[in-house]
Amino acid sequence: MPTEATPLSAAAGARRTPEVLTGSGAVLRTLEHLGITDVFGLPGGAIIPFYDELMASTTIRHVLVRHEQGAGHAAEGYASASGRVGVAIATSGPGATNLVTAIADAYMDSVPFIAITGQVFSTLMGTDAFQEADIVGITMPITKHSFLVTDPADIPATLAAAYQIATTGRPGPVLVDITKDAQQKSAPYVWPPKIDLPGYRPVTKAHGKQIAAAAQLLAESERPVLYVGGGVVRSGATAELKAFAEATGAPVVTTLMARGAFPDTHPQHLGMPGMHGTVPAVLGLQDSDLIIALGARFDDRVTGKADEFAPDAKVVHVDIDPAEISKIRFADVPIVGDAKEVLADLLDAWGGIAPADRADTAAWWEKLEGLRKDFPLGYAEPTDGLLAPQAIIKRIGELTGPEAIYASGVGQHQMWSAQFIQYERPHAWLNSGGAGTMGYSVPAAMGAKVAEPDRVVWAIDGDGCFQMTNQELATCVINDIPIKVAIINNSSLGMVRQWQTLFYDGRHSFTDLETGHQTRRVPDFVKLADAYGALGIRVERADEVDDAIRLALETNDRPVVIDFVVSRDSMVWPMVPQGVGNSSIEYARDHAPSWDVEDADMTGDPA
């Protein structure tokens, strides 16, 4: 049972005769006991009883979204920005299925998230009743667990169990589907309830022998790398990571999901690894003799062709989810445990190894520094006279600073945002990493702003992504959620277009969107922003960029949408084509760094 967010009333705990509540009242009371203060949702017939109860609440803020997917992503953004659980509410049938994309997204990225859905009367289930869908069955593969509640007496224990499952171990989404009759009927309300979760016992403390073995491998390593994944952020282990990295002197790489887990300005940070990672990070991993993976899952976007990844490296794999260990890359030292506790134990074990018994890594650092000098992160100015998207995103980060929150959509602008904004703290970077969900940015930024109202929140979006969920601007205007939206408008599905350019002989099949330079501008994003009651700005010249960003930062009475019209020919570099080894990284088009690992065949088929 969680303790930090379950303020229990002494009177309630001592009450001998339980209060009788409707199921809907039990849902509300349980959410209050769990410390939930904000929820995102959209009512419908099967969830009306709960909404009738929620209307009278003075402790829980409900944000009425314009689409259930928006509620789900807002709950994700809320959780990812704050570390607290996010809650989304929807009705049965299409209301529930509209949450599926966000649930899958949260599952891939280990986001603590509770989805509460209404269901048709229990007597109608299985009859193809109006707005009936088996949402428990639909979501079972993409949740940590899915519950169906048909008895109001079960509501407190079920929601408390959902909270525990969502927030402990490897975080993730849990769905609670409650029939309409369970919401309407009454039952004694018992708090705290007895929670029985057979088999659910997340291991947080690692085995001491494994810790010692990992420390010994590190002491013997001449070319180590700390490969840091999003699990370090989810576990709140960033301070422990910094202490361990500085004590060992090992280079650090942070994945797309871990940006901000280790400060970008720290001299030991090599950058982001993977398909669009920095050359030092990608080739540093590739030539390492030891990888200490912390809360990372050896995703294909990081490893490239898995059997060619880091061929000479031994692996210490730390993860709270035992299913991840050795799933893709065999772990020489598997460590099951919470990253925060494991890193503290590793630091103690490292301190017990005499400096004279530790391998010299000076030559390794000399090699890595050479890569940093020869292959700094940069970009080419467009030749068509239009704006460079990388420069715009870099200026957003520079003018706003590291205390802000940056939520991106998916595609080129996502990679540029990960590359060109400096992240100095956890929870500053929100994105859809595993699922790659277009439409994530605006509602996630909205949720983040609700969770962290005193921080500046940017949604850095593409013109394609923005058109999927921009209806949530209405939610932001009406609920006084003043996010800033930067549309990197290249008038196309940019990442798909880049792959078509590189791998399909420039056949740009169905990727033009008619939103940007010399097009019909359908829609006109400035007019769209104005229609929603937001401030709309268009930027087409370099000398307009800073003024537009500053105006956005100064405007806090409504959302701001900036239409940055950029070159459609700008590409994301560096790049490792899918299907080849990471030794085949290209620093820029037709420019591959020389490296002493034999180059792999550059014939991968992107998919």
TrEMBL record:
Major enzyme class: transferase
One BP annotation, GO: isoleucine biosynthetic process
Key words of the record: Amino-acid biosynthesis, Branched-chain amino acid biosynthesis, FAD, Flavoprotein, Magnesium, Metal-binding, Thiamine pyrophosphate, Transferase
A single GO molecular function term of this UniProt record: acetolactate synthase activity
Span of domain Thiamine pyrophosphate enzyme N-terminal TPP-binding: 22-136
Residues annotated as domain Thiamine pyrophosphate enzyme central: 211-346
The Thiamine pyrophosphate enzyme TPP-binding domain, residue ranges: 409-564
Catalytic activity: 2 pyruvate + H(+) = (2S)-2-acetolactate + CO2
Family assignment from sequence similarity: Belongs to the TPP enzyme family.
Name of the protein in question: Acetolactate synthase
Record lineage: Bacteria, Bacillati, Actinomycetota, Actinomycetes, Micrococcales
